[in-house]
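PROTOCOL LOG
Step 1. Enter all chains and additional molecules of the complex.
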Amino acid sequence: MKLELRGITKRFPGVIANRDVNLTIEPGEIHALLGENGAGKTTLMNVLFGLYQPDEGEILIDDKPVRFHDPGEAIAAGIGMVHQHFMLVPVFSVTENVMLGVESTRGPLQQRLDGPAARRRIVEISESHNLHVDPDALVEDLPVGVRQRVEIIKTLYRHSDLMVLDEPTAVLTPQEDEELFEIMRSLKASGTSIVFITHKLNEVLEIADRITVLRGGRVIGTTTPAEATEESLAAMMVGRPVSLIVEKDEAKPKDVVLEIDDLVVKDDRGHITVDGVDLEVRAGEIVAVAGVQGNGQTELVEAITGMRPVLAGTIKIAGDVVRLTPRSVLEAGVAHVPEDRLEDGCVPGFSIAENLVLNTYYRPPYSHGVQLDRDAIEASAAGLIKDFDVRTPSVFNRIGNLSGGNQQKVIIAREFSRPVKLLIAAQPTRGLDVGSIEYIHKRIVAKRDEGAAVLIVSTELDEVFALADRIAVMYQGKVVDILDPETATPQQLGLLMGGSRPVSIAEAEAAGELTHVVTTDV
Amino acid sequence: MSEPTPPQATPATPPPPPAPAKPAPASAQRAPAPAAPASASPGEPASLGQRIRGGARGLILPVLAIFSALVIGAIVIVLSDITFFDRLRADPGTALGAALDEVLGAYGALFTGSLGNPGTYAAAFASGDLEQITRAFTPISETLLAATPLLFTGLAVALGFQCGLFNIGAEGQLYLGAIFGTFVGFAFTGLPWFVHIPLAIGAGFLGGALWGFIPGLLKARTGAHEVIVTIMLNYIAFNLVNFILKVPGYQREGRSDPISKVTIDSSWYPPLVEGLRANWGFILGLVAALLVSWLLFRSTRGFEFRAVGLNPTAARYAGMSIATTTIVAMTLSGGLAGLAGTSIVLGVTHTLTFGISAGFGFDGIAIALMASSKPRGIIFASLLFGALRAGATPMQSITGIPIDLVVVIQALVIMFVAAPALVRGIYRIRVPEATGLETFSQGWRA
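Step 2. Run joint prediction.
Step 3. Record the structure below.
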């Protein structure tokens, strides 16, 4: 299918989200759509999908103008969308989820669901693109990467010739990324056009045929991976040259600020997910905990911040064994940027000013006794949004209405603006665009240079290598190794994260790839 | 919502001129800072003008909801006469004219019964007779009287909503407040009013607070859902009243029916104007609204309430205690509902019977919803519901249209308020960014 968006303009009160956007997707093409948060990618896709009506411009499919009034019409025309947040019923099987809304039926009154027929088609689709999805599995039992493939099957089941993938790799591990790219290539080979929305420049260069960059609602340009580099794409997105490498001096580690000794923690389901972790973080250094999602990093951070009970072991902050409640940890000088910023990091219904004092509201100068000092709160907020470059009309706007990058900047502003001994940041740049990532990385390094101990948790190898002075690799609840980012290679780290340490190290040493291994507590 | 008002002593004077004014006092004060629906359009900071416009936008939906409810109520009035269709077939013009008269008559009576009759006001002021002037204000007095307990229960439910708690138990808490307040009212003799009244108020608050503390504690400690616990506590409260009214020492001497002793007049709320039933209980309600507003939007405790209500996980990460916040919010909510109980006993009945609350606790839920749990809105919403209640009896006595119509209108208002999309659809209103109902929906979360 050939899709053409011609002169699309979409205005919202006070904002022009799309300005005269022209975009052509050729049949069987993987077309990457790049742009910062708020550049208008989502609006454009919502226009394409019939959720918004464009104020100007038209949509052409195979050179014929079409008009979609709702997603149903877009789907009928062969457009499929895989959202970042999956639209699946967890307690239904894969087959039930796929046929939901387009159920095959049989019987004299078409009153019975025809599961087997649907199942056969799902198996067909799955096999033709190597999706490896069990049609009878319950969605809730499937890992994230497989759920995403169920979404892909859903769109193929509805005969879509053009598929929109909205930040599909944001939720995937590096290994799953590769599998997804294989699937995308297979789809492309069968003639499906793909619109690939992402922030990650290396992925774009790897998989896309053509790349269109949006900024401020406008098309900045269309290019190809052959002509572009990560630097050139980043500059197009942000509008100025962006440094993708964090500039930082050698760390000067001082006293131990965080001392974790033989820590054991259970997750919500009662499984031991942190299993005897020893870790030290010193003032003036950044330690990155690297690992595939779900290997105990989340629970480790929750234990340190007092959100999760400690089963065994000790956590010392600045030499003291503190009572591990969120507030006493906070008052011991710990700043925490949580993993899930909307769920844990802020109150979306609160204003920016209120969110900036979310954990200090009860202390002077923000309150006196039981009374909040609104003037002090607002004055401080006005200063902080300037200092931390939060793009917002005013401090009274709800944080929930800001873009992801700006939300994260508010949280960073809150946590970084008070004197801290230990900074813990989990996935600090997840889902953010290059401009915001550059900014947040600089701030983290600045915090280190001020003398704070910094603990970063990240699943992004790039981020780990960019920030860390030491890398602690977590696998299945244990710190399996501590690496020096100067000498370690991404391959080596990837293998350790995947748990293949004993074999791989032997192999790697045999192959002479490893130059430096620090063995610690394993 | 349950039954109409208790004894309405004063009949309103007849001829009803149909001139319903708009019950829309557009208050353009400074909104309680950022917490107000500050959906300022991006581009420039939220100026005072924008905040006012934001406030006015907040009024559009309630006003249209009331209007829609009155329109449907009119249809109900017309159709409730089963001969209407026969007459329509025989002589459409006359039938429609009669229908219009009937509707205007009913709403006219409702209006004069709750706000007074312009003619009566004019005549009273012309006569210069103080007693006559006072009597002309009777409908307004009755409206304030009916609005008083609603103000307290509305605030009680709203406080819970703001903290993400759905307090269905205001009715039971009201009764507990009444039990405690009545006891102080009749048991302490020889106190001056300035000691006795605060003491009785304190006791009433305590009674309601106790009935709010229990579900709060259970939720915080065991996770028991407050909706279920408060519903069950309502039943316990109803039967507790029946029981206690039969206990010797509480029951009035020489009576076999469930009725308490008469409270001593030093505990009674003085009337606002001599000769009218409206009393200082309403002023106390306004003060309570101010205090709740301060608590929610100016105090550290209220900051915790709202943070926990909007996002408990983030509140926990920020070091707030969900358990403490839940318990305190439920206790205060119960205490406010308890004050509704004292406002009835000490302001109107001066004795406790089973019938003192005609569903005030449940109407409080509706009022909190209608006002999006904002104290200022609750003042207006409780006045509206008070007016409907006050006007219902005169409407029935004048036009023969049953009081139940008012209940229908109330229910319709709530329906339209609870379904903003419906009202927007009917009147083709563009969807604003913030509906102001977020707080409410939070209350439903398990």
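Step 4. Note key features.
The interface with chain A takes residues 33-35, 38-46, 298-301, 303, 306-307, 310-311, 313-320, 433-434, 438 of chain B (CB under 8 Å).
The domain at 138-409 of chain B is CATH 1.10.3470 (ABC transporter involved in vitamin B12 uptake, BtuC).
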